[in-house]
Design brief:
It is rod-shaped, with a radius of gyration of 38 Å. It contains 14 helices and twelve strands. The longest helix is centred in the last third of the chain and has 31 residues. The strands form three sheets. A seven-stranded mixed β-sheet has the order 6-7-8-9-10-12-11, covered by helices on one side. It has a three-stranded antiparallel β-sheet with strand order 1-2-3.
Length: about 425
């Protein structure tokens, strides 16, 4: 170091204390006589013997939760590096952690809402019972059918009973499949189906649910009395339910019903049944099975599709308590024959379901009718026109022979109509 520079350094050292000089990218401390005393390196973020151990805990301390804000990666040299997540992602994670405390998401952009929904789904917010119903309600009120448009719970009776509070939240459902759930007449879900929350429902599958005339009366009571409820229903599946012809009268309140399945019901496919649907509901018997009742197109659609899968996985993880066999006890009390008859009757019921007569009705003007329907309709119209011509000719001949009779009044009620009016 030059002498002039050394004098300057000594002067600065005496006036301001220690002097530091950066040389070749390193910081050096200069003594009073101009000599380099020591070299100070930049502090290291991690020591050389730094190791990482991943710990997964169910309830992590609050101090460790902040690690979610960082992304740990390895560079080319194999060193561990980390970067901070964007502020938007950090904010979404915070809101997802507290989604049950959000008042409303109305007006929030759909793209951001979908990211928020995925973040809450990863944190199991829609699976835990304390937060699932409220969390789903926040999204359902703001985004409706985007959250869930179609829900298929076919043969999942346990899931319907366990997730009753969550199912009530989906107000914008258009398709609901509850086939084979064995709900009976007094299940709580019928009270919600007949409320104003499910007015957008278009397709409803209630086959094989042990539904009787009493349950159908309860389901249709709001729309028959107050004109509210399932007023937009177009496709209805009531197959394999013990419904009688008296119970089918309750279906006349569905003015927009276009397709109906009553296969396996306690009714006879005769002329009176066809006449009832033709006169009261303007529906015809389908010569071929309708595709809509094959359940091939029914599936869960919406943001909450993975949530339903999480519910199933969580339900499958629960220990299944197998009931103790009662065969020995029944055999001891002399009821082994009863058990065998019961088993055989169950097998016979399953066989009869596969051999039952398909009874599908449809409206001829429906856009979903099949090609065979037009042929059947034209044939029926041709037969009907032939009957009208014969009746008209017979009436003309009878009119020529006999004097004109007194015309009966048009507003006459039958005994069945009077009974139906008195039932209200």
């Amino acid at each position: 170091m030059r002498s002039g520079c050394s004098d300057c350094v000594m002067r600065m050292y005496s006036e301001h204390g220690s002097v530091y000089v950066r040389e070749e990218g390193e910081l050096h401390c200069v003594s009073a006589d101009g000599q380099l005393l020591s070299t100070h390196k930049a502090p290291r973020l991690f020591q050389k013997d730094f190791t990482v151990r991943l710990c997964i805990e169910s309830s992590a301390p609050i101090s460790r939760q902040r690690s979610d804000h960082f992304i740990f990666t390895y560079n080319r040299e194999g060193s561990l590096c980390y970067t901070v997540k964007p502020l938007l992602d950090i904010s979404l994670l915070f809101i997802a952690d507290n989604i049950e405390h959000v008042d409303s998401l109305v007006g929030f952009p759909e793209q951001m809402a979908h990211k928020l929904f995925v973040a809450a789904e990863e944190k199991q917010k829609f699976t835990d019972p304390p937060t699932s119903a409220r969390a789903l309600q926040v999204f359902s009120e703001a985004y409706g059918e985007l959250v869930l448009k179609s829900l298929c719970l076919r043969d999942r009776k346990l899931l319907v009973s366990e997730r009753m509070e969550e199912i009530r939240v989906f107000h914008q459902l258009e398709v609901l499949d509850l086939y084979g759930c064995g709900l009976g007449d007094n299940h709580d879900i019928f009270r919600h189906l007949s409320s104003e929350a499910f007015t957008r429902l278009v397709r409803l599958f209630l086959g094989d649910n042990c539904l009787t005339d009493q349950g159908l009366q309860r389901l249709t009571a709001p729309i028959r009395v107050m004109k509210k409820g399932l007023e937009n229903l177009q496709q209805l599946d009531l197959s394999n339910n013990p419904l009688s012809e008296k119970g089918l009268w309750y279906l006349t309140c569905f003015k927009k019903l276009e397709e109906l399945d009553v296969s396996g019901a306690s009714v006879k496919l005769d002329a009176s049944l066809k006449s009832f649907f033709r006169v009261k509901m303007r529906m015809e018997l389908s010569a071929e099975p309708l595709k809509i009742f094959t359940h091939s197109e029914c599936q869960t659609e919406g943001w909450a599709e993975e949530v339903i899968n999480q519910w199933e996985r969580k339900a499958s993880e629960l220990p299944n308590k197998e009931p103790k066999p009662r065969t020995n006890a029944l055999q001891f009390y002399g009821r082994e024959k009863f058990v065998r008859e019961r088993i055989h009757s169950t097998c016979n019921d399953r066989r009869t379901k596969g051999q039952m007569t398909i009874i599908h009705f449809y409206k001829p003007h429906s856009t979903t009718q099949q090609t065979g329907h037009s042929k059947d309709t034209s044939a029926a119209l041709t037969t009907l026109m032939g009957r009208k011509r014969r009746l008209s000719s017979e009436k003309e001949e009878h009119a020529e022979r006999s004097p004109p009779a007194k015309r009966p009044p048009e507003s006459t009620f039958s005994a069945e109509d009077l009974n139906l009016l008195n039932s209200y």
